[in-house]
Write a structure and sequence with these properties.
The chain is an alpha/beta fold. The protein has 3 helices and 9 strands, in the order βαβαβββαββββ. The structure holds inosinic acid and magnesium ion.
Amino acid sequence: MDQTSSWSPEIDPALGAVVLTGDQIATRVTELGAQITHDYGGQAPLLVCVLKGAFMFAADLARAIDLPVEVDFMAVSSYGSATKTSGVVRIVKDLDADLTDRHVVIVEDIIDSGLTLSYLRKNLASRNPASLEVCALLVREGSTERPELRYTGFTIPDDFVLGYGLDINERYRNLNELRVYCDPGAGGSSSSRR
Ligand code: IMP
Ligand code: MG
């Protein structure tokens, strides 16, 4: 049995259908870890966790990789509304690590428009890493800009989602599963974002 949260749409109208169970996520993260272990054979990559959304994914992914990885953190903020990116990205917290000659893997929660990742990729590529790849847990169907993605967890439908690190106004990051967000202000049960 999968461990689902005790919060439910009945208790909180913002929480909609389960998109991915905790078990489904765990299985995929294990596969991604094995793939990275295989691909980097012997070389220890530096995982760059993009805060805050990727914190849970990065923690699980790091443990699924059987190599002496290093983990560093970066925080970016993209101006926009709570559920939409504007494309203007600002570095809020930069890395501690020097990327020169390192094998870097950017760990992202979700590729939506792809603008955040495009910016990050360019920015980190300019720091002379030996290699630079991206591992994204989620890619939203129909994302307009698809920066090169070496590793992808799941492609999900065009709904705003919560849980497993992803938030709405800083809440629901601690859900074990991924759920659709139902905008209480939108009226009805639709959660479509566009
Ligand atoms: P992009 O620049 O449009 O690709 O936006 C990516 C960022 O927006 C992600 O790293 C998330 O922090 C946030 N984001 C996009 N879609 C969702 C969602 O469905 N739930 C929570 N955060 C999201
Ligand atoms: Mg976010």
